[in-house]
Amino acid sequence: MMKYEKATLQDYGFKDYSQLKKIYSVLNKIMLTIVILMLYLSVIIIAIQSFNSSTDLSVFNKFTFKWYTEIFSNKMLTNAISNTFVVSIFATLLATILGTLIAIGINSLPQKKKQRMILLNNIPLLNADIVTGISLMFVFSLLMPIFPYIFGFPTLLMAHLFFTLPYVILSVLPKLKEMDPNIMDAATDLGVRPYRALTKVIVPAVKSGIFAGMLLAFTMSFDDFVISYFTTGNDFDNLSIWIYSSIGRKSLTPSVYAFSTLLTAFTLISLTIYNSFNKNKVKK
Amino acid sequence: MNNAFKKMSTPYLVWLYILALFPVAIMFILIFMNNEGMSLDEASFTFSNFAALGEPGNIVAFINSFKFAIISTIVIIIIGYFVAYRVFRSKFNNKFFVLTILILPMWSNLLLRIEALGNIMEPNNILVDLLSKINIDLYINIKGTELAIIIGFVFTYLPFMILPIYTALEKIDPSLEEAALDLGIPGIKKFWKVIIPMSYKGIITGSILVFLPILSGFAIPKILGKGNIISLGEVIERSFMNMSYNIGSLFAIIILILILGSIIIINKIDKEGELLL
Amino acid sequence: MKKEVIELIDLVKKYDDDTIVNGINLKVYDNEFLTLLGPSGCGKTTTLRMIGGFETPDSGSIIINQKIFNELPPYARPVNTVFQRYALFTHLNVFDNVAFGLNNRGYSYQLNFFGEEFIKSELIREKKEVTNKEIKNKIKDLIAIEVTKALTLVKLAGFEKRKVNQMSGGQQQRVALARAIINRPQILLLDEPLSALDLKLRQNMQYELKEIQKKLGITFIYVTHDQEEAMTMSDRIIVMKDGVIQQMGTPKHIYNEPVNRYVATFIGESNIIPGVYITKDKVRFMNVDFDCMGYNFKDNEAVDVVIRPEDFDVVDMDKAKLIGVVKSTIFKGVHNKLIIDINGVDFEVNTYENYNVGDSIGLKVDPYEIHIMKVNANE
User: Fold this and answer.
1) Which residue of C has its CA nearest to A4?
2) Distant-in-sequence, close-in-space partners of B98: CB < 8 Å, separation ≥ 6
């Protein structure tokens, strides 16, 4: 057995950077942590404020849970919160169902028409919030002679639908493209009628896209401020508008911070549970 | 299959025409009109609205917003690419989970978050207070400056850049990297010569998703600038609140033209509408 | 004495609990066309990737040029790879793809590649100053010449400016080949490069690849599951199964002297019948004694007899050693493939003449065309 020596990087004209690589890798980890802290900084501050017994935002008085319990006693706040949930959930559901159907429709169009639809679909997405808000306000106000009380929940819902539909469509379309085009043919060949085949065949095939679109739509709708500001009526506040006016009146109650922290914590925990649940599934 | 579903998207087309295109047309007409509020009495065709473009206040607003948008976008591209690349390269089991964690702050109300950021940018703030309790003294006074606004924009819009870049990175055929290694090109050279060119579409998408909202945003500059630094978005908001719809429409249309330009760019790069996700 | 370029010693690679490569010992020589042949999952691609540096062996050594290469990354090895799906850079045109290695390696590498003295003497000959700028320009020109040479070798001269995704599969394959060989590697690895091409194109490319290897005079290590491809191009074939080498040798040797049942069935068509080696040069199967030659088994040892379909001769009944009935016949163009039933055992026989189902047919086989294998307990 001959004893061979190891070939080295230098033999072939390369420098050995493995020491540098170790430092590089540590630096990377540090940078990544810094970035994550950056993103969460405001959330952390909100959390701190939620436990602050003083309403003075610059001083930390005592640690307290009272703002959390007061969430429910503040009528205006709970009102705004429930309005927000109602509108967002409604809009998301509608957007998901309609968006999926529309995406299927768009996918069946010939190339030129398809591109035109996609182009138009991008407009609500990329348009500045303020332009969208104002445009929608225009159009809705034109309807006022027919529906005098339209401003409020109906307009808000329509506005949210308007800017969430494109997100659903944009999530579902790529999955449709990846789907084997023959499965619809297979279904009809086996005697299934088109609309039934839709639910039995196409929807399962693109369900990850539908799910992603739904999440995205809800995120965009729940947090919306500008568009809601212009398209709601006097009596129907959602959370963002309520916060805005509270800030303006300098009457912001820390219960809002409590609510926000609760929401963040809830989502974080659900995600972690879902993730570890999935990991176990995969292991099996 | 296609025949059954072809008509399904037509209602959406009508919906978009009414809610998206029609108001734009109205605003376009309003630019050239001179009328009170929403009524059409005493309306006349005029170019006088364009004078607003020359007003110093508005010009400052333009410049401010463009400044914010350009600087923030560049910073976000650098940080965003770094994060996307690190997650992509990492050995995490569930990268989807990590990405969702990065998006999570977006679920907290924007105004609350900006207020919180603004809070710690002033000398008397809660962090300073807490830290002083453990004897660390910190002095920050950047609220009301452009730096504060840019920081606010960067922290807020970073996730919008990370996702498209990550998606683009995932789509790169791994054998391309092996080919580069095989041909003797490792490390940084490989990154510049192969990975970046193959993921530039993600950078472009991310930039558009970031640049446009920053350009037209008014909440962040208003809060973090303490009302001293005016933005394009605020000019528009003020115009519409003051019922000067004509001038407001003018600025809105300008932004719209920029947006349409971006949409056309996106369409040229990405024919199938898959980039955004 | 052929020069050894690669030696693999006891190479092992595992993925989780799966042992993909299970102790490979192999010597690869200079200027040979070597093929690793086997079905999916036999470890041939993994072995290739370990030689290329894209996988690290769990144990064992990879010796190249008398040095241990296990830890060395791919970019430092004197090896280049042609990937299965070409892995061309779609953002570059053909020229930039082919020149990629030379363009991006760094100044000192380029100087070394072309020869510093050579460049300087060229510049002096062209009455130019010997400055860094001039040297860099000269290198650019030299690279362009190399690209043209490489493209001409793969019959794509003139395609420099083309975009790679506007080219056909066969053309892309050749660009990938040019991109690899321009770097003058000692060893070229090819990972099933022709699998995505249609039959005629594949056959043409097989021929061309062999020609290129002879011209370049370097070692080609080729991976495929197509035994015909392996037989056409290789100087030596390594038949693998389950991470272990079953047999190695020239195509002729493996075809004629398969060492076990697996190799016999994998390469070419064969009939394998259990038999008994009665005594020297005599073997008995199907209850008939046959003369055979060239084997040294023990008297009365149980053996496997291998006869290729084309080695049977159809003869008149009185001269026949085996008689059977035609069960089916398929026209294959070049020959007919007949299934003959002899006493309940199916035999595959190739004939040029046509026979009908139900015909009685007499067969004989020459002694040197009877191949005998040791019976392997676990097959």
Assistant:
1) C67
2) B87, B90, B92
What's at B169, amino acid-wise? Answer: L
Instruction: Give me A283's structure tokens.
Output: 């292991």
Claim to verify: residue C230 and residue C287 sit in the same structural domain:
no
Closest CA to A206 of A64, A79, A104: A104
Please check the confidence at residue B94 and state whether its pLDDT lies above 80: no
Structure tokens at A100: 């999926």
Nearest residue of chain B to residue C188 (CA atoms): B182
The ipTM (two decimal places) reads 0.81
Q: Identity (one letter) of the amino acid at A201?
A: V
pLDDT, one tens digit per residue, over B127-144 is 777 777 777 766 777 777
CATH number at residue C325: 2.40.50.140
In C, what residues contact A, Cβ < 8 A? 61, 63-73, 75-78, 106, 108-109, 112
Residues C242 and C284 in one domain: no
Using DSSP's 3-state secondary structure scheme, residue C63 falls into: strand
pLDDT at A148 over 80: no
Given C253, C282, C298, the domain boundary residue is C253
Q: Inform me whether the pLDDT recorded for C23 exceeds 80.
A: yes
List the one residue out of B175, B185, B257, B161 whose CA is nearest residue B216: B257
Chains with 3 or more CB pairs under 8 A to chain B: A, C
Per the structure, the count of domains in chain C is 2
Residues C166 and C232 in one domain: yes
Q: Rounded to a whole number, what is the largest CA-CA distance in chain C?
A: 90
Angle between helix A239-249 and helix A255-283 axes, rounded to 10 deg: 150
Q: How far is B197 from chain A (nearest CA, A)?
A: 22
Best CA proximity match to C295, nearest among C364, C371, C365, C366: C371
Shared-domain flag, residues C86 and C180: yes
**Cα distance between residue C126 and residue C146, in whole Å:** 19
Query: Which numeric CATH code is attached to B56-106+144-269?
Result: 1.10.3720.10
DSSP class of residue C335 equals S
Q: Are B68 and B153 in contact (CB under 8 A)?
A: yes
- Counting beta carbons within 10 angstroms of the beta carbon of residue A269, is it exposed (0 to 12), middle (13 to 18) or buried (19 or more)? exposed
Our CA-based measurement puts residue C232 at a distance from the nearest CA of chain B, in whole angstroms, of 27
Instruction: List, for residues C172-229, the tens digit of each pLDDT value.
Output: 999 999 999 999 999 999 999 998 889 999 999 999 999 999 999 999 999 999 999 9
B44 to chain A, any CB pair closer than 8 A? The answer is: no
Domain positions in chain B are 56-106+144-269
In a domain, C98, yes or no: yes
Q: Which of C253, C277, C306 delimits the end of a domain?
A: C253
Q: Is the CB of A223 less than 8 angstroms away from the CB of B240?
A: no
Taking the C-alpha atoms of residue C19 and residue C11, their distance in angstroms, rounded to an integer, is 11
Which residues of chain C make contact with B175, given a CB cutoff of 8 A? 83-85, 87
C89 interfaces chain B, CB cutoff of 8 Å: yes
Query: Are B204 and B265 contacting, i.e. CB atoms less than 8 angstroms apart?
Result: yes
Chain C hits for A6, CB-CB cut-off 8 Å, are: 67-68, 70-71
The token pair that represents A98 in the structure block: 């309609």
| DSSP-derived 3-state class of residue C241 | strand
Q: Which residue has the tokens 């509270």?
A: A246
Helix locations, chain A, DSSP H: 18-50, 66-70, 75-107, 111-126, 129-142, 153-178, 182-189, 194-197, 203-205, 207-222, 226-231, 239-249, 255-283
- Same structural domain, C25 and C62: yes
**Rg of chain B over all Cα atoms, to the nearest angstrom:** 23
Question: Stretch C61-90: mean pLDDT, rounded?
Answer: 90
Instruction: Write out the two tokens for C149.
Output: 């040479």
- The domain containing residue C365 runs over which residues? 269-374
Q: Is residue C80 part of a domain?
A: yes
Written as one letter, the residue type at C176 is A
Whether residue C352 lies inside any domain: the answer is yes
In single-letter form, the type of residue at position C50 comes to M
Q: What pLDDT does residue B277 have?
A: 42
